[in-house]
Amino acid sequence: MWDFWTVDDGEQYHLFFLYASRALKDPHARHYRASIGHAVSRDLVNWERVVDALVRSDAPAFDDLATWTGSVVRHPDGRWFMFYTGASLNDSGANVQSIGYAVSTDLMTWDKAPGPVLQADGRWYERYAPPPEGNWHDEAFRDPWVLADPGGDGWHMLITARSAAGPVDDPSDTVDRGVVGHAWSADLEHWELREPLAEPGQGFGQLEVLQPFVVGGRQVLLFNCLAGDASDRLRATGTEGGVWIAEAETPLGPYDIAGARRIDDPSLYVGKFVTVRGTGETRFLAFRNETGGAFVGEITDPYAVTWDGDRLVLDPLGH
């Protein structure tokens, strides 16, 4: 298991996660075999696995290869909406990602809506092109994180995407195009794609699994990027990949992505902040990625989260 997201229904925490069978043997093959599993907990430590949430659709469909990372929010009418990434292969065998959603009344049984509801638009976002024209290995448009508008004006979606144009300061660095994609909806069902909330050229080829969050009274943007997906300039500093946070003025930016700091051990990936019900304390979870060159594929126990000046400190709780 690897990428995950959580939601609190007021009684239990729900963990939705990507998983694949270890019978694949090659951990890199997991991405094309991903389904969305589901577990519940009352303390973020002891989890009970329950019925799976989603699997890929029969071809042809936007999610006929795999179902990837997303988020869950509750509509004012009580329905739960799961936004997720659908992966499919185009005619040249490239992975094209787009976004759909499913609806549930109980967080257990999910019904997919016809999709996709959002796809990359070449006006703002990079579309896949084969070499030598192409700059990236797939069409990156995934990991939808949905949040209510702070002022009550509908809903916003942050998306892992790449800019259609290169960074202004160094157009030759085609890797350095990672941006925070953006869409807006009045009702969670119909979506309007908008310009990115960040500019390319900030050091990252992609900002995976975005999460805006207030930690200790400070607004940040959490994202994830491996060293191999960083720009040449960032890699030249010797920086390892992992989980990053950028200072932010609001959940919708502006973000100091160029000044982002890695906050964890590089063996952890796809971090998430979770608010503890009742206390309001912040916890951090991640999945265990590679240790000693071997993929682990487990979710951590929660970490306590505190600030030491401008440094975010993660402390294992010792369960």
TrEMBL record:
One Pfam family, short name: Glyco_hydro_32N
Domain Glycosyl hydrolase family 32 N-terminal: 11-222
Keywords in alphabetical order: Glycosidase, Hydrolase
Family as reported in the entry's similarity comment: Belongs to the glycosyl hydrolase 32 family.
Lineage: Bacteria, Bacillati, Actinomycetota, Actinomycetes, Micrococcales
UniProt name for this protein: Glycosyl hydrolase family 32 N-terminal domain-containing protein
UniProt xrefs under SUPFAM superfamilies: Arabinanase/levansucrase/invertase (SSF75005)
Record InterPro entries: Fructan_Metab_Enzymes, Glyco_hydro_32, Glyco_hydro_32_N, Glyco_hydro_beta-prop_sf
Top-level taxon: Bacteria
